[in-house]
Specification:
Layout: E1 3-7, H1 13-21, E2 26-30, H2 33-42, E3 47-54, E4 58-59, H3 61-69, E5 74-82, E6 86-89, E7 100-103, H4 105-110, H5 112-118, E8 123-126, H6 130-137, E9 146-149, H7 151-157, E10 160-164, E11 173-180, E12 192-199, H8 207-216, E13 222-229, E14 237-244, H9 250-262, E15 265-273, H10 288-302
Parallel strand pairs: 1-2, 1-3, 7-8, 7-9
Antiparallel strand pairs: 3-4, 3-11, 5-11, 6-9, 6-10, 12-14, 12-15, 13-14
The protein binds 3-phenylpyruvic acid.
Residues 7, 12-14, 51, 54, 83, 104, 106-107, 129-131, 174 line the site of 3-phenylpyruvic acid (PPY).
EC number: 4.2.1.51
Pathway: Amino-acid biosynthesis; L-phenylalanine biosynthesis; phenylpyruvate from prephenate: step 1/1
Catalytic activity: prephenate + H(+) = 3-phenylpyruvate + CO2 + H2O
Length: 306
């Protein structure tokens, strides 16, 4: 039975994702994303499950930065999970008495309209996770009056639900990933995604276009691109890429080695089955057979077999 660390405590959306991704796993809750990933890096756990992005507000930047700068990990699976937020308080607290709200930053950004409309005077404070917020609000002397979290977190920590479905959109989806220490990659399935980060050699006109060209000329479709500051000053960025296909696919392998040639550094973060099950449209001339045929042709002309 694998042991998997996750963004805890009990009752987070990440726990829900983990239960779907690995129903048999032993679950090790950790206080934040970095601690969950460190548990996997140090071998306390066989891997970890963490949130990566949501469809409304985008990236969970702590996760992106851990993947780029922390000890290397490989993504081995992903999950898309619809999330529903509830406003939770200690029994007896009326909505009119809520002055301080505690929740994860990703929940703050996804419930802005509700908070502005129903709790215009409330101060909203960032918590390590939604369930950590619920756990804290449940303490009798808590400085917070309410948490935004999953209904199940309220049940778990003995809070009452004052409102539910309080997200700005009802169709918000969060993408979670399972990671392991570097090792064998999941086999290609025909419906895969690859993730990497790339660092520029130097800042010059067209630097980003040069990277994108490596994907474009091989017919590799990007599914996410994100710039993150390197920390070396305003205007200094590196890039996260998600794209269709597995690094074992010829076109993807060629694009990735092309990036390696032109970038200062490329950190490969994994090839793994896509949660949506979609398959890439393979452009003419970019199938595995096309690359193999071209390689054979090149070696023939190199040896004079014209
Ligand atoms: O805090 C949680 O419950 C998490 O798993 C992070 C999160 C927060 C808001 C939406 C999705 C995931």
């Amino acid at each position: 039975m694998p042991k998997l660390a996750y963004l805890g405590p009990e009752g987070t959306f990440t726990e829900e994702a983990l239960r779907i991704l690995a129903p048999q796993a032993e679950r090790l809750p950790r206080a934040n994303v970095s601690a969950a990933l460190d548990a996997a890096r140090r071998g306390e756990a066989d891997g970890a499950v963490v949130p990566l992005e949501n469809s409304l507000e985008g990236a969970i930047t702590t996760t992106l930065d851990e993947f780029a700068w922390g000890e290397p990990l490989l993504i081995t699976a992903e999950l898309l999970l619809p999330v529903e937020f509830s406003l939770l308080a200690r029994p007896g607290t009326g909505i009119g008495r809520i002055k301080r709200v505690f929740t994860h930053p990703a929940a703050i950004t996804q419930c802005r309209a509700f908070i502005a409309r129903e709790l215009p005077d409330a101060v909203v404070v960032a918590a390590p996770s939604t369930a950590a917020a619920a756990q804290e609000v449940a303490l009798p002397g808590s400085p917070y009056d309410a948490a935004v979290a999953a209904r199940i977190a309220g049940e778990h920590y003995g809070l009452v639900e004052l409102a539910t479905g309080i997200g700005d959109r009802s169709d918000t989806v969060t993408r979670f990933v399972r990671v392991s220490r570097p090792g064998p990659l999941p086999e290609p399935t025909g419906s895969d995604r690859t993730t990497l980060v790339a660092f520029l050699t130097d800042d010059h006109p067209g630097a980003l276009l040069e990277m994108l060209t490596e994907f474009s000329v091989r017919g590799v479709n990007l599914t996410r691109i994100e710039s993150r500051p390197t920390g070396d000053g305003i205007g200094r960025y590196f890039f996260h890429f998600d794209f269709e296909g597995h690094v074992a696919d010829a076109r993807v392998g060629e694009a990735v080695s092309g990036l390696h040639r032109i970038c200062a550094d490329v950190r490969f973060l994994g090839s793994y089955p896509r949660a949506d099950g979609l398959s890439p449209q393979v452009k003419r001339g970019t199938a595995n057979g096309d690359f193999a045929e071209a390689t054979g042709w090149l070696s023939r002309i190199r040896t004079g077999q014209v």
